Amino acid sequence: MMSKHWLGKVLMGLALLVGVGLGLSAQQPVHAAEKTYTIGTVDSFEPFEIPNNRGTYTSKNPGIEIEMLQQIAKHEGFKYKLKVMSFDATLTALQAGQIDATMGGMSVTSERKATIDFTKSYYSSGVVMAVAKSSKITKLSQLKGKTVAVKSGTSGAIYAKKMAKKYHFKVKYYKTDNTMWSDVQNGNSAATFDDEPVLRYGIRNGMKLKVVTKAVDSQPVAMGVKKGQNQELLAKLNDGITWMKKTGRMQKLINKYTKGSASSADSSSQRTIWALIKNNKGALWDGLVETLELTVVGAVLALAFGVILGVMGIAENRLLTGLSSTLIYIFRGMPMIVLAFFIYIGMPSVIGQKIPLFTAGVITLMLDEGAYVGAIVKGGFEAVDRGQWEAARSLGLPYSKALVKVIMPQGIKIMIPSLVNQFIITLKDTSILSAIGVMELTQTGTVIISRNMEGFKMWLIIAVIYVVIITLLTWLSNYVQRKVG
Question: pTM of the entire structure?
């Protein structure tokens, strides 16, 4: 039987790994003396939110709502930090307490009023239908039997769902505007529904679509806080909106982005592949570094977690083998994107502490990839001839020494190819973390495309970067395998 001493070591190691992941959040500075609100916003929703090529809102023209928030915060005397994610994720994060308020061209609906306290409205936006430039569709009745693309959680999606039964069309959901619009432009979907200013922004900046209907279902746009919570912030936002309206600042701001040149995109000379690389090299580099950091840190923790699971899986203690099998089964069976949302949005409501994006990403990789590593390690140890165990134990070696001195060196040689392959898979899996807003390489590409609408060229650039990195890792893995072999 495995000694209690070893059992304690294994459990302590498991606890330490989780502690390391959660402890990364301690790197975030805490300023208890001053009140700083966390505001959730979307990764792009032009002209309301216009990120720069690094996915932040520090440019001269960050969008209607970002600039509005800047002016209100200065006037009302409070500080804030933005948390960027997909629109539907902001609503979930608001209910989970991850953020204090949310915005993103959010329409005020009776359904949302049940869980959100809205600010005063500062814009009214109607929904329009757009089709590909070459399309002959001009009205909803022509959509019968066809597919319509919409962005999850938006007023366009709500309107499409309401009209689908009446006009007998199917609805397909996307996370970002540019992906949704590209689907229509490429002919995969017949039409799209979206807020009029957002669609017209996309068309003005190169998307080959045309608006074919008048704006309908006009709804007020506002910010929101969780119902019954953050009433002090709600009051400050309302005071600021009132002040901007009375002084004419609000209308001036709206005109700047809907009638002025603030939302103009890159010229055609800046849309070549070389120009896209040159103009966005800083953002692409940052995204690559974030991807590699996530990969290395996540892979190291996953390896440690996986080794513990693997050792537990071959233990003579049934409790440990059962626990190992259960953890491997759970984390291998759970889709990684679900695990990422659970850790980033679900866990804070349980532990009472917000989890930074990078930390959430690392923990997700550790648990998901660690489960696969655990299965590899367990399989590698079990592949060692059983006679090696018996020989080691017959010489009087205790379980722990037999494992470390005899079984492990042989098992590692068996595991190496699979472990290296898992490391490459970890690199590719970092792209899934873009769903919660981690600014790795894939999310960087999404943000850049939202500004210039050059989906094919940017995804080609991103794909080449991934292929180059994975090729280098493959060469390295082949070298390591030859040396170990």
Answer: 0.70
Q: How far apart are CA 318 and CA 242, in angstroms?
A: 66
Question: Could you tell me the two tokens for 39?
Answer: 């505001």
Encoding tokens for residue 339? Answer: 């695990």
Q: At 131, is the secondary structure helix, strand, or coil?
A: strand
**413 in Cβ contact with 357 (< 8 Å):** no
Number of domains in the chain: 3
CB 345 within 8 A of CB 282: no
Buried b / exposed e along 53-72 (16+ C-beta atoms within 10 A): bbbebeeebbbbbbbbbebb
Q: Flag whether 117 is in a domain.
A: yes
Token pair listed for 174: 């996307």
Give the whole-angstrom CA distance, residue 278 versus residue 149.
32
Q: Is 38 left (phi over 0), alpha (psi -120 to 50) or beta?
A: beta
pLDDT value of residue 28: 44
Give the up-direction half-sphere exposure of residue 430: CA atoms within 13 A in the CB hemisphere. Answer: 31
Helices (H), 247-356: 249-258, 273-279, 281-313, 318-333, 336-341, 347-351
Q: Among 126, 138, 101, which residue's Cα sits nearest to residue 196?
A: 126
Cβ neighbours around 319 below 10 Å, total: 11
Range of the domain at 318: 4-25+279-484
Does 321 share its domain with 354? yes
Compute CA 206 distance to the chain's CA centroid, rounded to the nearest angstrom.
Answer: 26
Residue 435 lies in a domain: yes
Cis peptide before 356 (omega within 30 of 0): no
Give burial (CB, 10 Å; 0-12/13-18/19+) of 294. Answer: buried
Domain-located, residue 352: yes
> For each successive 10 residues of the chain (485 residues), what is the average pLDDT?
47 52 46 72 84 79 93 94 84 87 90 94 91 94 94 87 93 86 91 89 84 89 94 95 96 85 56 83 90 94 93 86 93 92 84 83 94 91 75 73 74 82 90 85 82 80 93 82 69
DSSP bridge partners of 84:
41
Give CA–CA dist 72/74, Å, rounded.
5
Residues 6+ apart with CB under 8 A from 297: 362, 365
Record the tokens describing residue 226, joined without a space: 């969780």
Question: Quick one: 451 and 335 in the same domain?
Answer: yes
d(CA 221, CA 461): 36
- Same domain for 81 and 106? yes
